[in-house]
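Bug: token stream looks shifted between consecutive jobs. Job 1:
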Amino acid sequence: MRKFLCLVALLLIVGCSNNRLVETFVTDNDEVLQQILEKADKNTLVIFDCDEVLITPTDTLFSPANKSNYKKAIQYLDKRVGFSKADDILLDLRRRYKFRLVNDELPNNIKNMQAQGVSVLVLTSHWTGEFHDIKHVENLRKNELAPFGFDFKKSWNGIEKMTFYELPANLPKYNMIRYPIFENGIIFACNLDKGTVLQKFLERIPQKFSKIIFVDDKMKNVRSIGKFCETNNISGKCVQYKKAKLFNKNKAESQYLERELDKIINSHGFRS
């Protein structure tokens, strides 16, 4: 009965593109995602976003439940101490805050797919390069994934680190240019269009794929990869995975976040 209900849910939440080559799914259901992933074979490239798909913060300030209030809180922090000092505070907090898995089964799901010869990739919007006192800011994301047992390098033995200098990205507010990189099974896209970055990556590697399964929490990225699949005549199953939005226990009003930031500012010795 449970399997039947899951199949019904799948039918209810699927929105298919007019092009039969690409199917678009919207779900917060782990079993529905599992059914989609079970379709992967050696001709399939499975791609996961990271934040709010693989892992999500447990800290109140950075919880996905507070996304709109978070922006207000950052504006408040910038106003209090200036955006440079605000960055120092946020980086220090990020080094210390904790994450949880969005889906407890995904580490094993990914290991099982890799054992069956399925290629698995992470495609995150995360930035790269030097930022404040961090030489390679992408290492923050690697360190956040490490405790959960993910090993995306397994699918890409022999593929060396690559930098996509043909895709410069302007880092807002800082007058800096950064470039997407691929390393150990993770593409850091520097907030560029994910379909564009994926195109450049696949042009450089020897592997060819006839199918793609893509999982992201943002519809704009789902559409971007869907368009990539259509353009390149690749069968695509593109999933907007909204499970992280169910973690509402950390929801807070902006006034609460501002009070917490005031405590943090004082503890760092920063003043207006």
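Job 2, same session, no restart:
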Amino acid sequence: MVILNYILYYLVILPIAYLPFRVLYMLSDVLFFLFFRLIKYRKKVVLRNIANAFPDQSKEEHIRIAIKFYHHFCDVMVETFKSFAISQDDLLKRNKLINPELINHYFEKGQSVILAGGHYNNWEWVATGMDCQVKHSVIAIYKSLSNKFFDEKVLKSRSNFGLKMISTKRVTEIFDNKKNDITATIFAIDQSPANPRKAYWLQFMNQETACFYGTEKYAKQYNMPVLFGSVRKVARGYYEYEFLVVTDNPAVEEKGFITKKTNLILENDILQAPEFWLWTHKRWKHSRPEGIQMETVFE
């Protein structure tokens, strides 16, 4: 296994990472043919997710969205490989924050913030380059990979430009230990909770959906303003993102407000350009358990 890890990383991933962008996207086109036409990677999951999210659209429209998605998915894949060797100049040229003054306003007031976002467009580049574009110290919450070799390599690549990666197992510890620091902590809101009985259930993309409550939980506990990072793909390999205010004062919001609003913003982004969301993941693998009410906070 160790030898295979070294072969994959040094003989496959790194050579791809050093390819010029023009060649990189030629490779992406080849991967599209491989993933969509030949091995049909999670194609049933993708089409089922899209069909359930857009029940009023035709099968032909679902396939059209899927084709666009797989093209984008392969772009993100090669861009993720590129992250192992990308320069800061290239990253910032291709991944721009268009309203840094909004988040920097909170820094000037000495306020830490929580940043919510989804697996939309190139979320990896957004997180990796954010510390270079804001005044806060940026932290990202992540789930450790089971493969320790690649977990170490991925952590290093994501941390090259100042981003600090914190395991999901250490979230409370980090919030307690960094009370005196001015931080911006990134939470991904569109993963599927392991325990559907401890999830916040709401309507998302036309389906009953189990949502993590952690973003809201920590925002209210530490009364940190919540911003949402909305990302747009402006051209192949080029992204812009902006922050939107969810709430300045989480402590006074009713329970569920932050979770509902962040998911609503993400849903609106997906509806505008559905091909840029990560349709391959099994977002709706859980059904709402009997006795669990919609929009009810479990604590």
